[in-house]
Amino acid sequence: MGHAPVQEIVEQAMTTHKGLAAWVGEVAALTLPDHIRWVDGSVEEQALLTDHLVAEGTLTRLNPELFPNSFAAFSDPKDVARVEGRTFICSENERDAGFTNNWMDPAAMKDILNEKFAGSMRGRTMFVIPFVMGPLDAEDPKFGVEITDSAYVVASMRIMANIGTDVLRKMEDTNAFFVPALHSVGAPLAPGEADVAWPCNEEKWIVHFPEERSIFSFGSGYGGNALLGKKCFALRIASVMARDEGWLAEHMLILKLTSPADKTYHVAAAFPSACGKTNLALLEPTLPGWKAETLGDDINWMRFGKEGELRAVNPEAGLFGVAPGTGWHTNPNAMAAISKGNSIFTNVALTDDGGVWWEGMTKEVPTHLTDWQGNDWTPESDRPAAHPNSRFCTPIDQVDMLSKDYFNPEGVEINAILFGGRRKTTIPLVTQARDWTHGIFMGSTLSSETTAAATGAVGVVRRDPMAMLPFIGYDAGDYLKHWIDLSAKADQARLPKIFLVNWFRRTADGGFAWPGFGENTRVLKWVVDRIEGTAEAVETPIGFVPAVGSLDLTGLDVSPADLADALRVEPSEWESELAGIQEWYARFGDSLPEQLAEELKDLKARFGA
Ligand SMILES: Nc1nc2c(ncn2[C@@H]2O[C@H](COP(=O)(O)OP(=O)(O)OP(=O)(O)O)[C@@H](O)[C@H]2O)c(=O)[nH]1
Ligand SMILES: O=C([O-])CC(=O)C(=O)O
Ligand SMILES: [Mn+2]
């Protein structure tokens, strides 16, 4: 790691937590780093690390007048997204990983990992990051410790989670259990060997041991592959904890709405990666008198409270948002948060004045940029300037519309749940479920076109139950059963109403049928009015859709034809949709909850099929 100052303050601050001390010792003996640094989470340390990363060429410092204390990173072009094909759930029994996960025998996997991690940190500094997902003052705080040989991961984890000495002390005081999360970019350095800007390994392993509650990640430095508090812990491992402890770990945003009548509502929404969570979480309402505040944009931990109400907290401390499409005209709240600085951008383009740019940031396209791969770029270039999965990583407390309830360990009561995907056809703008179980059916059959957030083909329709397909840490049928069983703890009158939404339906000419973004306020208003029982709906075989005139379109320039396209329930499209659902459900085999098989039967009957 060169001669940067980061090496001079290592191997301090050992721990009195015996389990942690032992694990750190074991990992060091296996991975053979040159140095160990216990991450304290301080501002000074972050400055030291980012200075170091700038000196090494991993980060580019942005113009502080545009983006103070902010940096751009450019990854290896083969390390730009989550690698679902290389992600494993190694439960003791294969059955418990279910058909949606890759599985390998835990002992066989441990052998592979031991070989991969042996000496993998040679020539590098090993960082020990104590972290907590969710509030440190929660009744039962969820601790983790990430060991990584990437300073970029440390700097990003400091934005995404609560990390450092305070967390470590609390873990020590309570001798707390923690999720051990070991990460290596898998690129050891020989003595004197020069490093590259983005070290990684062609071979990637993202592995979870659900019974042990441990995580191993090898070969990638990117996003959900490497920031292990996020998808690996807060969704995959947490979903298993949630199953065992009676709660839910979900891929959902949390949004607070205040109506003109000054009534508040909380909405949770599950959309697959790159399908609009961060945008809806930071909604700028377009209807007068409505106020939106955010609590979370990606992950939501929910449990039923003492009164049978469903309560939600966001376990994350930052936004790791899709950059393309984020602009002052689409998502001004995200832009304002980013503009305060303290952010790390990955795989965006650079402007000539030391700022960042991506497709959709401004309506006017700059005449010259440096693209994410370091090449000159002009509007005539035939490739995007920013990678489609380029990201901004920004502290959530820089969001002006952040609800003060974000900091409340008790969370907020959820009144409505939205499931949504990216579908060009078939799925109407909004459909209300007939009841709770039908809503779970809607979630379980959710489908979406694939995006650049994961490697592989883009635009292919796949089923994505509750937007959790890549994140359910156990058998998918058991997961759906858990959703059904949990509601026994609920006050049935306070169960959230469930809705299916689709902002992405197309018209015959290929354009979006619905303007989306801030205009989604109108759909949320309809949702609230349905909760209040004041909006009219038409009952269709798939659920309740807005009656003509029940969506508030005041001041909106949308043609009646486009609106009809957005809301249509088209039997011919549903014929193939039913076949798709049937095929999907068949894959669950015995583990499909019978209530859901029943729901499918009823749906088919309503279509006369
Ligand atoms: N047409 C349309 N596009 C949208 C809308 N909301 C979001 N998008 C676009 O969809 C892409 C992804 O949006 P995000 O809000 O970042 O998605 P996300 O679900 O937070 O993604 P992850 O962070 O990967 O989980 C961006 O390019 C957005 O501009 C909408 O209402 N309409
Ligand atoms: O995990 C990542 O790399 C980014 C992300 O939020 C997602 O894909 O949903
Ligand atoms: Mn997001």
Automatic annotation (TrEMBL):
It is found in: Cytoplasm. Its cofactor is Mn(2+). Catalyzes the conversion of oxaloacetate (OAA) to phosphoenolpyruvate (PEP), the rate-limiting step in the metabolic pathway that produces glucose from lactate and other precursors derived from the citric acid cycle. Residues 247-606 form the Phosphoenolpyruvate carboxykinase C-terminal P-loop domain. One of its GO terms (molecular function) is GTP binding. This is Phosphoenolpyruvate carboxykinase [GTP]. Mn(2+) binds at K231, H251, D298.
